[in-house]
Amino acid sequence: MTEKTLTATPPPVRRWPALDLAGTDFDPVLAELMREGPVSRIQLPNGEGWAWLVTRYEDVRAVANDPRFSREAVMNTPVTRLAPHFIPDRGAVGFLDPPDHTRLRRSVAAAFTARGVERVRAKARGMLDALVGDLLAAGPPADLTRAVLSPFPIAVICELMGVPAGDRHAMHTWTQVILSSAHGKEASEKAKREMSAYFSDLIGRLADSAGEDVTSLLGTAVGRGEVTPEEAVGLAVLLQIGGEAVTNNSGQMFYLLLTRPDLMERLRAEPGIRPRAIDELLRYIPHRNAVGLSRIALEDVQLQGVRIRAGDPVYVSYLAANRDPDVFPDPETIDFSRSPNPHVAFGFGPHYCPGGMLARLEEELLTDALLDRVPGLRLAVPPDEVPFRKGALIRGPESLPVTW
Predict the structure, then answer these.
(1) Cβ(58)–Cβ(28) below 8 Å
(2) What is the Cα–Cα distance from 56 to 15, expressed in whole angstroms?
(3) d(CA 71, CA 351)
């Protein structure tokens, strides 16, 4: 990560507004920043100051995997950020560095292994079959988001977490408020406190459980003194919220397929390519607005001719990395035969999303069920009339009107 020639004058600070983008349109500000250079400086709508932005694939992976860039140090540093309420909680796994981060993730790792994910496959398929059956029974037109794409990921992540079915609506409501900047800081913080209190109670009751779900694993880890109750609750909240991101990702995925019937028909005709196609769609779809969590440089680091100084905040853009033409030839083209496809849609390094395997399972089940059981599925309105979420950190359609 060193360069012989350092840029004498740092790049200008670019304001990056919170854009409510529709469809799968790529953020025009991010596209412009990518054209200007691999390392730039940005100011987001909230927080303080400016931050470095890294967009080139190899640099993104390098920063994400380099211990000289700390998530934990963000706790003590005012950082420019997208959402007004996005304030880190001390001890939360997203703001820990190894070895504490490794210790905390290890406590729930069994639930996210291939075996752990396979444990919920049959139950997930059964829940999805019931939802699609209800969709068909009710008849067209329908809101695919309300009927299938929203309740399915909620049910699956709650199943994996060990949240009883009767509490799923509350979980969904809390998550939607937390993941939106439209409700304001106070409402989002209140929702986070309420979800935390819920998991605190649930984990506390499972200290001696032999269950394989996440809250049981956390309860056991707390009982053994491997993690603190506060750490367990913070991790549960993060995993629950992350699990619902599939709703928006799958919403964008099906919006794209419904507006590209050539792609939809190919997936119907060639079911064997669906897993590879889903990976390509995950690479292509801009699943979030702006950037996620920042890191703080712990020492001076030279990157692409720029000196990042100790204490500077740094963001990486996985969306930009997934459009790097040096790694993904013709990156604006959706190519179901793309191989290799080393996308970073689930992140990279120690903070790689633990739910990546689960998300792939859900997308594969959704694709199989909707393409095979609803062969005439199509949009019920023109593409530009599909409403997309406003003020959302994770992009996706508010509703997806369909008919068949």
Answers:
(1) no
(2) 20
(3) 9
Neighbours of 181 (CB within 10 A): 20
Q: Rounded to an integer, what distance in angstroms lies between the CA atom of residue 314 and that of residue 69?
A: 8
Condensed to tens digits (0 to 9), the pLDDT of residues 4-16 reads 445 568 899 999 9
Task: Count the Cβ atoms, other than its own, within 10 Å of residue 77.
Answer: 17
51-54 and 313-316 beta bridge pairing: parallel
The pTM of the full predicted model, rounded to 2 decimals, is 0.91
Instruction: Please list, residue by residue across 4-17, b when 16 or more beta carbons sit within 10 angstroms of its beta carbon and e when fewer do.
Output: eeeeeebbeeeebe
Nearest-10 crossing angle of helices 151-161, 214-223: 30
Burial of residue 345 (number of CB atoms within 10 Å: 0-12, 13-18, 19+):
buried
Token pair listed for 63: 């920063």
Q: With contact defined as beta carbons under 8 Å apart, do 63 and 295 qualify?
A: yes
Give all strands (DSSP E) within 165-318, no chain letters: 295-297, 301-303, 306-308, 313-316
Alpha carbon 227 to its chain's center: 25
Q: Residues 139-157: pLDDT tens digits?
A: 999 999 999 999 999 999 9
Q: Give me 198's structure tokens.
A: 């819920």
121 contacts 127 by C-beta, under 8 angstroms = no
Summarize pLDDT for 96-136 with one digit per residue, the tens: 999 999 999 999 999 999 999 998 999 999 999 999 999 99
- φ and ψ of 302, to 5 deg: -100, 130
Q: What is the pLDDT of residues 18-46, one digit of tens each?
A: 899 999 999 999 999 999 999 999 999 99
Phi-psi region of 69 (alpha: psi -120 to 50; beta: other; left: phi over 0): beta
Other CB atoms within 10 Å distance of the CB of residue 71: 20
Please name which of 380, 132, 86, 111 lies closest in space to residue 258, comparing C-alpha atoms: 380
Can you give the pLDDT at residue 209?
75
85, 230, 279, 321 from 377: Cα distances, Å: 38, 46, 22, 33
Q: Tell me which residue of 355, 254, 362, 313 sits closest to 82, measured CA to CA.
A: 313
CA distance 292 to 59: 16
Q: Distance between CA atoms of 57 and 326, rounded to whole angstroms?
A: 8
